[in-house]
Structure formats: structure tokens, C-alpha cells
């Protein structure tokens, strides 16, 4: 009995140590795969806003993208060429004061605020949920050739994955309280996300005049997906010079894509009456 017990323990220990070795080996191979993945990612150049990975090279970097398509964004909107269509109505916006910003993320291309469910717009009887807002600095769309210091994009997606983006220009003027709130979560390092979990009333960021230009374009970043319905508000909101400077300091710099060819597209406009 006394001699058999230590022998039993030895056998059990031997089995366990063997099993450990197998598990260690498995872990080693996982690590190797990860390393391989990292090496692979390094070989794949990521798109940026300048130099050899800048907008002119997006189609070489993102071969499956629509970045070389014929209906791309942004564009320069020339007011006199926009068709004043009587059937157009104000955008049917349903933003609530009780919807929370879930988190803020710096994806290296912009500062983005991801919203919880609740805000939406209705377009042609379809509901488009607000997913996120982000900024371009300076603006991407130009109006009569004018580039504003900042453009805010409110990105909405329908159940069947159709995209509507509302674009709001900001110019220097009176300071904006909602911007003070949004800026208080900055700076945020590239590649990081911070939980916000706070109510935010997006109505506060809308211009007083709801007149807009609308056209069919694309996402302005790879994969440059087309058939995005754009609504660009004619009237900018104002933020203070300090707020502009603060964003310039804390956001990815010059994160805008140049004007894309119109290629025969019509730009319609709604003028508030
Ligand atoms: Zn954008």
C-alpha cells in the first residue's frame, strides 16, 4: 500500500506534465500564427491622406473598393447648377435627447462617436438609423469652391444596408456648447476607444436653416462604397476659433479627400420656405 501510492502519484504527475507539454506546444503554434498575421498586416499598406498611401493610391491599396468609381464623393457643389425641385421636403429627422453616445474612437482617420440605437431619419418611407458621427478637418465637400474649416458627417444605415449621410459644415463664429461637450473626450490616441455612455441631443448640432443639396455619391473613405445618398446642409453651424484650433490639434490632420468628378450626376436642392 505504502509503496504503491507514491508510484500512483508519479504516474499521475507524468501524465499531467506530458499534457502540459502538449498544451504548451499548442500555445506556441498559436503565437506563431499571430506573428504571421502581424507580419502579413505589415505587408498590406494601409490607406492614409498623404504620400504614397494617399487618396490617389487608394484603388491600388484597396483593390476591391469602389474608389475608382464614377459616382464618388466628395464634390464641389455649385449652387447655380443645383436643380430646385419642388417635390423635395425638409429631411424627416427623429433625433432624441435621450439617445446615448456609446463610445468615442480614434481610428487613425477621424474621431468618431458611435451612438446607441434611437436616432433615425425617414426617407421614402424607409428608416435609416444613425450609427455614428465623425469629422473631417477641413471640409470635404466644397460649396461654390469654398472649403469650410470643418465638416461633420452623420452616418445613417437602413435595414437593407443603404447609406444616407448628412453633412454639416462648421465655420468660425460663436462657440458651440455641444462641441465643448464632444471635445472634452479628446485627446484620444490612435487605435483607442473610450466608453462615453452619456445622453447627447444631436438636434443641437443641426443648422437653423434646413435647406440642403442632395446627390448620389459614395463613402469618402475606402471602400468608397457607392449609392450613398448625401444631404449637404447649405447653412453652416458655428464653432469658436478656439474649438476649431482644439480639433486641429487633437484630430488626425487634413483628413479630407479632394473633389471628385461629377460625371453627369444631378445635384438637387431644397430651399426652406
Ligand atoms: Zn466622413
Strand percentage: 25-35%
What are the segments in which pLDDT stays under 50 over at least 5 consecutive residues?
11-42
Order of helices and strands: HHEEEEEEEEEEHEEEEHE
What percentage of residues falls in helices of 4 or more residues? 10-25%
For this structure, the quaternary state is: single chain
What best-fitting shape do the alpha-carbon axes yield?
Answer: globular
CATH second-level architecture: Roll
Tally the structural domains: 1
The distinct bound ligands, ions and cofactors come out as: zinc ion
Q: Tell me the radius of gyration.
A: 25 Å
Number of helices: 4
Report the CATH topology name: Carbonic Anhydrase II
User: How many individual β-strands?
Assistant: 15
Straight-line N-to-C gap: 100 Å
Mean pLDDT: 88
Q: So what's the CATH class?
A: Alpha Beta
Please outline what is shown here.
The protein is an alpha+beta fold and 273 residues long. It has helices at 4-43, 58-61, 177-183, 241-250; strands at residues 76-77, 83-84, 92-94, 100-106, 111-115, 120-123, 126-136, 142-143, 150-158, 163-172, 193-199, 212-218, 226-233, 237-239, 268-270. It has a single domain, classed as Carbonic Anhydrase II, CATH 3.10.200.10.
Q: Features of this protein?
A:
13-stranded mixed sheet, zinc, globular, alpha+beta, carbonate dehydratase activity, Carbonic_anhydrase_a-class_CS, Carbonic Anhydrase II, binds zinc ion, CA_dom
Describe this structure in words.
It contains 4 helices and 15 strands. It is an alpha+beta fold and 273 residues long. The chain has one domain (65-270): Alpha carbonic anhydrase (Carbonic Anhydrase II, Roll), CATH 3.10.200.10. The strands form 2 sheets. Strands 2, 3, 4, 5, 6, 7, 9, 10, 11, 12, 13, 14 and 15 form a 13-stranded mixed beta sheet that branches. A two-stranded parallel ribbon has the order 1-8. The longest helix has 40 residues, at 4-43. The N and C termini lie far apart (100 Å).
